[in-house]
């Protein structure tokens, strides 16, 4: 969504107490069993956090409330002003995942803490992206003339959930998912002031904000309120029983985090392709990450698509502030403005991925100088009454990619196809059963029964395509045959899994595909019989991508639901582990094919990817 005449005129942050180094964490977040120190070393070694802040003392007593953290950030945003400085503010939007009370809303508690005059309030509850939701609420209100000035405030206080006395009631021995976040999250608050005109000196003009949730597709990743056995906190006999069962612990299933990166990456490509974001024009990139590690193959794809932002333009305060959830991007911008001192005309891209149930947010900011004639001319005056609604600008046009290399243009188009395909797969009946826990032995066996004959055909259509390459593309023949050799006996592994799970069909030849699978198989073989069917690289992109990005997320859920099936998941494990290398080989083959055939081959690859995605998804939809 594009905005006009919405400005961030000041920022503020608050961090309780002195910075706590890694060696001192145990004074506040004590180990509770022999597993704790090992997890702590591993997590701290990966996330790069050196110091953080806690709003508890070494006895576990709170030194602040969450509302007080937010109030201090608001005061910093108002340059130390109190109630009088809030006189021109008529909207307070606030976000947190760790408020002090269940009810009322956090914005109301913050308003009371500030002793602020009467105003409109909006409370946003969630995880990391809830702060961006509060920003969107406030920006829309200003954009449409409903309010003149707003404060958006965020605060997090997770350490109350992590102290030893709170973390292990009645001797509860927490699982890894509950341990993990104890050394990831910390306390603090951030606030931004929004106005319909720039403030004195430099301001940040909000040009674009994109917020999208994928909760209807993907499984629960980060939560508090559900015990390991699936029971919700309110469904226990009493709160003590819920506590003892571990329902009140904050958990994250780290096995699902690659799905968040996959979703965020492809949503970013979609925004770039539409023209909403131009990576080449970004001067500063503020990225909310819990870890600084990248998926190498995905990063390589973004580089080839010419959508990557050089790391020299990145900024993060993760190392010395820690992960502050919804407040991270707010405090990050405050630290960035003080440390980097951007100049007028600079463009800043904010990125916030949320793992709660998978949400991504992007915001594009432009640094403007109030003294600039252009800034003054475009700014709306602040009237005594609410201003008239500001007309929204025209939507952006798609990015002009005529000057892009063929590989870059192709990868962008494939990313959009994958984005839609992934969404469709995650909403199929089979995957829905895996996610909600209703999947049974018959479902898994039925899936394998229809998948085995498809996998069996994989090496056959690949070899057929290789044998139909003309001399022009002969250089790719060995690469395709090599890949077919890797796939040749995959179906034997899958058939063994099928039999171990209780499959009754004794012969591979007796297994039948459903109509979707038959259509996919017929399409792939028909294309492979044509000369130089290099468009099938698009089919491989979808098929290998399924193994690399979707299967690894389903495998732990299947093991959890159907662990008693024993040795029945060998193929799924192999598929997820080896498809990374397969994708790297695919990238090399694509570059070679495009160097020879150019745009015509790229068009074929896109067409085959689109048709394969539709047929593959249809096959999965028909497994019930």
UniProtKB/TrEMBL annotation:
Q: Which domain of life is it from?
A: Bacteria
Specify the signal sequence span: none
Does the UniProt entry include the keyword Transferase?
yes
* CDD domains attached to this UniProt entry: init_cond_enzymes (cd00827)
> MF terms per GO, please?
acyltransferase activity
Q: Which UniProt keywords apply?
A: Acyltransferase, Transferase
Per its UniProt record, what InterPro entries does this chain match? ACP_syn_III_C (IPR013747), Haem_Oase-like_multi-hlx (IPR016084), Thiolase-like (IPR016039)
Q: Where is the Beta-ketoacyl-[acyl-carrier-protein] synthase III C-terminal domain?
A: 276-352
Question: Can you cite a GO biological process for this protein?
Answer: secondary metabolite biosynthetic process
Q: Which SUPFAM superfamilies match?
A: Heme oxygenase-like, Thiolase-like
Protein name, please?
3-oxoacyl-ACP synthase
Query: Taxonomy-wise, where does this protein's organism fall, top ranks first?
Result: Bacteria, Pseudomonadati, Pseudomonadota, Gammaproteobacteria, Lysobacterales
């Amino acid at each position: 969504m594009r905005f006009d005449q919405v400005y961030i005129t000041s920022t503020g942050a608050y961090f309780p107490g002195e910075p706590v180094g890694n060696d001192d964490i145990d004074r506040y977040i004590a180990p509770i069993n022999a597993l704790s120190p090992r997890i702590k070393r591993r997590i701290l070694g990966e996330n790069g956090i050196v110091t953080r802040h806690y709003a508890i003392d070494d006895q576990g007593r709170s030194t602040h409330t969450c509302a007080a953290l937010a109030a201090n950030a608001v005061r910093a945003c108002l340059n130390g002003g109190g109630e009088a400085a809030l006189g021109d503010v008529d909207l307070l939007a606030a976000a947190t995942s760790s408020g002090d009370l269940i009810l009322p809303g956090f914005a109301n508690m913050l308003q009371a803490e500030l002793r602020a005059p009467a105003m409109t309030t909006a409370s946003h509850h969630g995880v990391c992206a809830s702060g961006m939701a509060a920003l969107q609420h406030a920006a829309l209100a200003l954009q449409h003339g409903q309010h003149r000035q707003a404060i958006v405030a965020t605060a997090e206080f997770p350490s109350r959930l992590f102290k030893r006395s709170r973390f292990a009631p009645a001797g509860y021995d927490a699982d890894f998912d509950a341990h993990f976040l104890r050394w990831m999250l910390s306390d603090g608050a951030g606030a931004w002031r929004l106005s319909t005109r720039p403030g004195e000196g430099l301001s940040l003009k909000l040009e674009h904000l994109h917020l999208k949730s994928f909760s209807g597709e993907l499984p629960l990743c980060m939560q508090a309120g559900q015990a390991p056995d699936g029971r919700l906190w309110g469904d226990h006999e009493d709160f003590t029983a819920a506590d003892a069962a571990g329902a009140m612990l904050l958990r994250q299933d780290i096995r699902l985090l690659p799905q968040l990166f996959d979703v965020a990456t492809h949503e970013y490509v979609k925004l770039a392709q539409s023209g909403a974001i131009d990576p080449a024009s970004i001067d500063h990139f503020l990225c909310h990450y819990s870890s600084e590690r990248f998926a190498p193959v995905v990063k390589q794809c973004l580089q080839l698509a010419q959508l990557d932002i050089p790391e020299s333009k990145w900024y993060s305060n993760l190392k010395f502030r820690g992960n502050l959830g919804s407040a991270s991007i707010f405090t990050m911008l405050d630290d960035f403005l003080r440390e980097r001192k951007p100049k007028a005309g600079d463009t800043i891209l904010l990125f916030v991925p949320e793992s709660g149930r998978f949400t991504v947010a992007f915001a594009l900011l432009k640094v403007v100088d109030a003294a600039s004639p252009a800034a003054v001319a475009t700014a709306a005056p602040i009237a005594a009454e609410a201003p008239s609604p500001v007309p929204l600008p025209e939507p952006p046009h798609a990015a002009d990619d005529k000057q892009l290399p063929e590989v870059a243009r192709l990868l962008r188009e494939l990313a959009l196809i994958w984005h839609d395909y992934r969404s469709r797969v995650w909403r199929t009946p089979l995957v829905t059963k895996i996610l909600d826990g209703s999947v049974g032995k018959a479902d898994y066996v039925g899936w394998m029964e229809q998948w085995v004959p498809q996998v069996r055909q994989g090496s056959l259509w690949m070899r057929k395509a290789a044998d139909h390459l003309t001399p022009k593309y002969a250089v790719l023949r060995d690469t395709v045959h090599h890949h077919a050799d890797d796939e040749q006996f995959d179906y034997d592994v899958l058939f063994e899994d099928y039999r171990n799970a209780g499959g009754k069909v004794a012969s591979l030849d007796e297994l039948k595909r459903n109509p979707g699978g038959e259509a996919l198989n017929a399409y792939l073989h028909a294309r492979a019989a044509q000369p130089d069917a290099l468009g099938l690289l698009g089919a491989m992109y979808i098929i290998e991508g399924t193994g690399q990005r979707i299967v690894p997320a389903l495998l732990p859920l299947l093991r959890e639901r159907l662990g008693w099936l024993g040795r029945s998941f060998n193929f799924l494990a192999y598929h997820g582990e080896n498809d990374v290398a397969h994708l790297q080989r695919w990238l090399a083959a694509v570059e070679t094919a495009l160097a020879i055939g150019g745009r015509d081959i790229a068009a074929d690859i896109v067409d085959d990817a689109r048709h394969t995605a539709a047929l593959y998804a249809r096959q999965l939809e028909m497994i019930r």
